[in-house]
Every structure is written in structure tokens, then in C-alpha cells.
């Protein structure tokens, strides 16, 4: 039968075309390629489920923050919030180097409740794009996921956005992921609220600590359009690359079907 032949050819071609993307972990060509042929290729829905652990695992490096999230199970709380597509979540993730700059005892001395609160302090239970921070700074202090007394102040110094806690004022060094409902921004320092750290936590004996540029916090932000943030989503999770690849394959297969029809 001609039709069967066409379908078979399509399946074989699609398998050949798609296997580099799909074969990553499953060497035998997946049977799923031979899907029942639908004439109209379904419009690819934007993936609104973001696997935070997977995202943080490939970006960064954010291993320290991720391991604390997993140890305390706060990752579950964050993921549940990320799944709420109406509200979403904004997470400030300090890089491994930010944790390394502080003495180990800074964190090992914390009770598990304090550690949980500290992690929740690094997030807003709502999605904010970098552009929205400009408006958000009018609302300082802004409540975090940790609840009422745990607030952050956002400042925008000519396009450099800082997140101010009592003992640290990290800047957003990059936007790791920023697609509603999930925003993940990388910080160069850990946020240190006064409710947990009654005094400025000591730094680890660093090789050569860069001196703080004593920039004035009081400088009014001129609302210039100068260099807002550094790129919208410089490193999107590799996991999505695979997902998108699969969708492209299906579309390609659909296209082939049409040709061979
Ligand atoms: C979030 O959504 C995904 C996909 O629907 C689901 O597999 C996962 O269990 C959800 N996680 C939480 C913590 O709600
Ligand atoms: C952690 O606890 C130890 C022992 O109680 C203490 O000597 C040390 O100063 C504490 N470190 C911090 C950063 O609070
Ligand atoms: C910021 O606020 C102004 C005035 O209220 C509004 O026009 C603008 O759309 C807001 N920008 C963002 C990114 O929310
Ligand atoms: C945050 O901003 C508010 C209002 O401007 C101010 O009262 C508060 O002291 C600031 N907090 C920090 C930690 O800078």
C-alpha cells in the first residue's frame, strides 16, 4: 500500500533526522516517532513547567545554593510556587563563589529553621522581570518569601540593579532565566538579613578581597535607559533545548508527511 509506504518512509526519515537530539540517553530509536499521523501539526505550547533543580543544576555554578535547597526541602516550596503560573516566583541565586567568600561556620552555625528562612529570603513569591524591578524599587522595602520582617530593598544605579539586605548589597550579575512565571537571577553575594545575622558575618580569609566601591546608596536613579540588565536569558536550561528539539522533529516529520502525500 502506498500510504503505508509513505508513513514508513516518513518514520525512517524522521528517525534519522531526529536521532541526534533524542538519542542522548536512549540509543534505540524511540518508537514514539511513528505517531499516528495528524494532518495539522499541533501548535507547540510554550513549556510553562520549569524544573528548578534541573535549571540550577546546569546553570551557575550554583551547587552550594542548590544543595542547601535540597537539604532543607525548600526546593519543594520553590517548585510548588513556580508551578503557580499566575503568580510565579523570582529567585536570587548566589553563585558558589559568593558562599565561598564567607566563613563556613556562618552557615553551619545556623539552626535548620534559620537556614530555611535564609533560603526563602532569597525569593519573591511572584515573577518579576528585570524591567519591573525599576518600578518595584518604589515599594521598598519589599517582602520576601520568608515573610513579613524579612525584606529586601531594590536599587537601580544607572542600570545596575542591587538587592540590599542588612549586611550585603549584591548586584544582579546575570539573568539566568526570565520567562513568566519563573525568574532566576544570579547574585555575586549572599543575602544576609539582620534577623538571622545579628552582626556582620566574617569573611573567609580570601586571597585578595576586592575593595567595595563606596558607591552612594542615596544617588537618585535617573531613570536613564543605560544598559538595563545584562541580556535577557543568557543561559536557558539545556533541558529545554532537548524539548524544543523534539518538537522540531515532530514538525519536520509533519512536513515530510505533507511532501510525501
Ligand atoms: C510541578 O509541576 C510538575 C509538572 O506538572 C509536576 O511534575 C511536579 O510534581 C510539580 N511540583 C510541585 C512541587 O508541585
Ligand atoms: C559558630 O559557632 C562557633 C562555636 O560556637 C563560634 O566560635 C563561631 O564564632 C560561630 N561562627 C559564626 C560565624 O557565628
Ligand atoms: C512601571 O510603572 C509605570 C508607571 O506606573 C508603567 O507605565 C510601566 O508600564 C511600569 N513598567 C513595568 C515594567 O511594569
Ligand atoms: C529599605 O528601604 C526603607 C525605605 O526606604 C528604609 O527605611 C530601610 O532602612 C531600608 N533597609 C535597608 C536594609 O536598607
UniProtKB/TrEMBL annotation:
TM region positions: 238-260
Membrane topology of the entry: Lipid-anchor; GPI-anchor
Signal peptide from the UniProt entry: 1-23
Residues covered by region (Disordered): 203-230
Domain FAS1 span(s) in chain numbering: 49-191
Keywords: Cell membrane, Glycoprotein, GPI-anchor, Lipoprotein, Membrane, Signal, Transmembrane, Transmembrane helix
Biological processes annotated in GO: plant-type secondary cell wall biogenesis
Predominant place of localization: membrane
Record-linked InterPro entries: FAS1_dom_sf, FAS1_domain, FLA_A
Protein's job: May be a cell surface adhesion protein.
Protein family according to the UniProt entry: Belongs to the fasciclin-like AGP family.
Subcellular location: Cell membrane
Protein name per its UniProtKB record: Fasciclin-like protein
GO cellular component: plasma membrane; side of membrane
Amino acid at each position: 500500500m502506498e500510504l503505508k509506504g509513505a508513513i514508513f518512509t516518513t518514520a525512517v526519515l524522521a528517525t534519522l533526522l531526529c536521532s541526534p537530539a533524542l538519542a542522548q540517553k536512549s540509543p534505540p530509536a524511540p518508537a514514539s516517532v511513528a505517531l499516528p499521523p495528524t494532518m495539522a501539526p499541533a501548535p507547540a505550547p510554550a513549556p510553562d513547567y520549569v524544573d528548578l533543580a534541573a535549571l540550577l543544576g546546569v546553570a551557575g555554578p550554583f551547587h552550594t545554593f542548590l544543595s542547601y535547597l535540597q537539604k532543607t526541602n525548600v526546593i519543594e516550596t520553590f517548585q510548588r510556587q513556580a508551578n503557580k503560573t499566575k503568580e510565579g516566583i523570582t529567585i536570587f541565586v548566589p553563585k558558589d563563589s559568593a558562599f565561598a567568600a564567607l566563613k563556613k561556620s556562618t552557615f553551619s552555625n545556623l539552626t535548620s529553621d534559620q537556614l530555611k528562612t535564609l533560603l526563602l529570603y532569597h525569593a519573591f513569591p511572584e515573577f518579576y522581570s528585570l524591567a519591573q524591578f525599576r518600578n518595584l524599587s518604589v515599594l521598598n522595602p519589599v517582602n520576601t518569601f520568608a515573610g513579613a520582617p524579612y525584606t529586601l530593598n531594590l536599587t537601580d544605579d544607572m542600570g545596575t540593579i542591587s538587592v540590599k539586605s542588612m549586611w550585603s548589597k549584591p548586584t544582579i550579575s546575570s539573568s539566568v532565566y526570565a520567562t513568566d512565571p519563573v525568574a532566576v537571577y544570579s547574585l555575586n553575594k549572599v543575602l544576609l538579613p539582620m534577623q538571622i545575622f545579628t552582626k556582620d558575618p566574617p569573611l573567609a580569609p580570601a586571597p585578595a578581597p576586592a575593595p567595595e566601591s563606596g558607591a552612594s546608596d542615596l544617588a537618585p536613579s535617573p531613570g536613564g535607559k543605560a544598559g538595563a540588565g545584562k541580556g535577557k536569558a543568557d543561559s536557558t536550561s539545556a533541558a529545554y533545548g532537548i524539548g524544543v528539539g523534539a518538537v522540531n522533529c515532530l514538525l519536520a516529520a509533519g512536513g515530510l508527511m505533507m511532501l510525501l502525500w
